[in-house]
Every structure is written in C-alpha cells, then in structure tokens.
C-alpha cells in the first residue's frame, strides 16, 4: 500500500490532488522523517480511515515506530490544543486568555522524536485545524530550530493536500 493507492482512488475531478501527492512525496526540502511525519500527523488529524491506512503503510518504511508515534501524538494533542486556543483567540472576553489551560500536554516535553520534527508536525496539523495562535507558536519554534520558510511551507502544503485528499475520499465513499 502506498500513496499510489490513494492517487488511484481519487476521481478524475481531483487530478490536481493526485499530482500534488506525487510531488509532495518527492519533496526534498524536508528529511524523510519530517516529510512522512507531516503526512502521518495530517492523516490522523483528518481521520479518514482509508487515507490513514494508506499513509500509515507508506510512512512505515520511512520512519521509526517512535517517530511515527510522535507524529500521531502531534495530531492527538493538536486536536485538543487547536480547539482550545482557537476558541480563546476568537472570544472577545480576554480574561479567558489569562487563565491557566489546565489541560495535560506532557507529550510536548518528550515527544519521542526531535523537537523540531514534532513542532513541524504540530504546525501541519494546526493548519488543518485552523488555529492561528498555534500556527504562530509552532512556526516560531521550528524557526528557532533552524528550519526555513521553505520547509515550513512544505509542511503546510502536505497538510493542505492530505486534508483535501481525505475529504474527497470520504465524500466519494458516501456516494
């Protein structure tokens, strides 16, 4: 199983998504672990079963199990944080931003992969989930670790394409 299976499952109207999957799989500005972690975290963030299965299979040969678990953890923790921090940002009452979150986030301290990679995966998921505060926070962190704007853009592109592919696959299965 691979991204080729996903590409073949896409209908003709989603040809651009198929082409983007191919080009992103060949992307060379990220390490293989960074790239496949972005794919994996993004797939888990959206949660379309067939997309998760295919990307899990494709990523398995490119990442250690610890790194893959860290990518999954990035999707899990951002699923919580993106909702919480996006809500704080959208609410007019600024008092909520002064209160402690009181949400467990222990994984952030020791994610099981290099901090730069985990932050990059969290950035891709935050783009999918639409949290501007988290995007800014994770972008600042990856930049502190020496990643470039082109590398950040690659993570965002992966998140965008995996999100779109997931939605098309889910919609097609409902037809």
Automatic annotation (TrEMBL):
Belongs to the AhpD family. Transmembrane segments: none annotated. It comes from Peiella sedimenti. It comes from the Bacteria. It catalyses: N(6)-[(R)-dihydrolipoyl]-L-lysyl-[lipoyl-carrier protein] + a hydroperoxide = N(6)-[(R)-lipoyl]-L-lysyl-[lipoyl-carrier protein] + an alcohol + H2O. Antioxidant protein with alkyl hydroperoxidase activity. Required for the reduction of the AhpC active site cysteine residues and for the regeneration of the AhpC enzyme activity. Disulfide bonds join 131-134. Its EC number is 1.11.1.28. Keywords: Antioxidant, Disulfide bond, Oxidoreductase, Peroxidase, Redox-active center. Residues 98-171 form the Carboxymuconolactone decarboxylase-like domain. The gene is ahpD. InterPro entries: AhpD, AhpD-like, AhpD_core, CMD-like. SUPFAM superfamilies: AhpD-like (SSF69118). This is Alkyl hydroperoxide reductase AhpD. Pfam families: CMD.
